[in-house]
Predict the structure.
Amino acid sequence: MLNPGGVDLFKAFFKVLLAVTALATIAALTPVQLHAAQLSSDARGAIPHDVQQLVAIDYRVMQNSSSAMGLRERVMPPELKQFDEALRKSGLNGSEDFDQFVDQLAFALYRPRGEAKGDSDSLATVGVAQGQFPMADILANFRKQKIKPQLVRTNKLYAMGKTGMVACFVDPSTMVFGGSESVRAALDARDGSAPSLLTNAPMMDAMKTVDAAPLWSILDQKGTQTMMRQILGEAGKVTDFETVRKRLVASWYSMDFQHGVKFDLTISTGDSFTSATIASLLSAAVAYRKVSGSEPEKQALTATDVQSDAGRLSIHFATSDTEFISLMQSPLFQSMVH
């Protein structure tokens, strides 16, 4: 049997939760009506096939709170912060407020095709923004600045100011942005020159279960294995877990903030034994933390439920806005963001 063995798995779990849902953590402070962060067919078609993780969020949730934007600086992963900064500072419409036109934002972490060294661990990121973009103003600004686009077939790539990134409007409501190579890969997928997310059946199936939420994410097998390795830390190095790791298939999570903070993570495994083994390990870690945690941490533990059923491991976390804010002020949270 796997044993926590002094490894603080609960802390590790919440550290991963903070990393992969940093935008959601910010959103918890924003008392606004949320909508589903669904991706259009054009947006999905512009995402490369070999996605390791896809994160989608209602962008309004982050922009409508000054306190949330302050917290953003502390908890957003550097790679996502770079994309968000590029979006806010792009000046595509001739001013510094281009992000006001963004309604949904998605980030795809994918494995590039045809790596020269065959490095399957190599990952790239591309962003997809959806909204009602002022195309007349954007094109007028490009002409004023004498900015000439790069052509990829009939697609036009424009520099996003001084951010080092480029953007392409695949239609008036969908913009693909990121590094030049990543955007070209996205356009290859959209134009049919390379497979897209639309042909990735496991990821498309996973998306159906979560894309009605204001924030959601899906991970493929390798992404799920990486996440669990981060959660389990040292415990993940034991022989038993190596057997379990190979049976992890995929995972998906969603978050909702309309009535407090709710987080649901599902991990699909190859069999009931695997899901039960991991559930037992995480449940033991939760019980271990209850002995020494602070009051906010104990409340969070009480709000965390780990279940196993028919080859699926489910983790549910629900708490009030007030209790979640208290948790963010706890030693546990502070140790993870510093």
Observations:
- Residues 1-10, 19-34, 65-71 have pLDDT under 50 and may be disordered.
- The longest helix spans residues 272-292.
- The CA atoms of residues 14 and 231 lie 8 Å apart.
- Residues 36-200 form one domain.
